[in-house]
Amino acid sequence: SPQKIRPRKRSAHYLPAFQERFPNVAITMAELEVGQMMEALRQRPLSVAFTIRSPQFSELNQPVGEDLVFHHVTDTPLVALAAENNELAKSYQSMSLASLMKQELVFIDSIIREDGVLRQILAPYGRPNIRYSVSSLALFYQLLSQNPYFSIGLYSADAQDDLLQIPLRDTIYLEQGLLY
């Protein structure tokens, strides 16, 4: 889904600290499309949502309306991802998206679906050479870390997943923030 281009285990890192600081706040995590997320916020099953936006891509630039607020937190670039032992990946200081599209790629099913935002982002750079599209996050990390494959995701200074993050020459930033 557009709000989850690449999980970087952030929730596993921040949720315990949040719950310790705010023990009376109940947290329910759900993966929703942006339109579903906005509707859930309007109907109040959700109080707040973490999402990404981008004026470059229509699916990530839906108007939020006057009844919701998008609070910008940070801008984060997309990066190529690969295992630290991937010899080809280690040879790159930076990488073009066109070059990345020619590599054997691994994705999470919900992220790379045909009508999804990641396909919209990648379309101008060629058809992605998808080796595997998997539904399991654990299998995604296993395939990526144990094989000479690549993926794409959001840059993270604290990802703690032992993946190389190769800057993309085709700079694409996504706005991360809270929607409420």
Please explain how this structure is put together.
This protein has 180 residues and is α+β, with helices and mostly antiparallel strands. The chain has seven helices and seven strands, in the order ααββααβααβαβββ. It has helices spanning 10-21, 34-43, 87-90, 97-102, 109-112, 117-122, 137-146; strands at residues 49-53, 70-83, 105-108, 130-134, 150-154, 163-167, 173-179. The strands form two sheets. Strands 1, 2, 5, 6 and 7 form a five-stranded antiparallel beta sheet that branches. It has a two-stranded parallel sheet with strand order 3-4.
Beta-strand share of residues: 25-35%
Q: Largest sheet at a glance?
A: 5 strands, antiparallel
**Which structural class matches the secondary elements?**
alpha+beta
Number of helices: 7
How many extended strands?
7
First-to-last CA distance: 18 Å
Give the overall shape: globular
- The parts where pLDDT drops under 50 for at least 5 residues are 1-9
Rg computed from alpha carbons, rounded to a whole number of angstroms: 17 Å
The pLDDT mean sits at 84
Write a compact overview of the structure shown.
29% of the residues lie in helices and 25% in strands. It contains 7 helices and 7 strands.
Topology of this structure?
Blueprint: H1 10-21, H2 34-43, E1 49-53, E2 70-83, H3 87-90, H4 97-102, E3 105-108, H5 109-112, H6 117-122, E4 130-134, H7 137-146, E5 150-154, E6 163-167, E7 173-179
Parallel strand pairs: 3-4
Antiparallel strand pairs: 1-7, 2-5, 2-6, 2-7
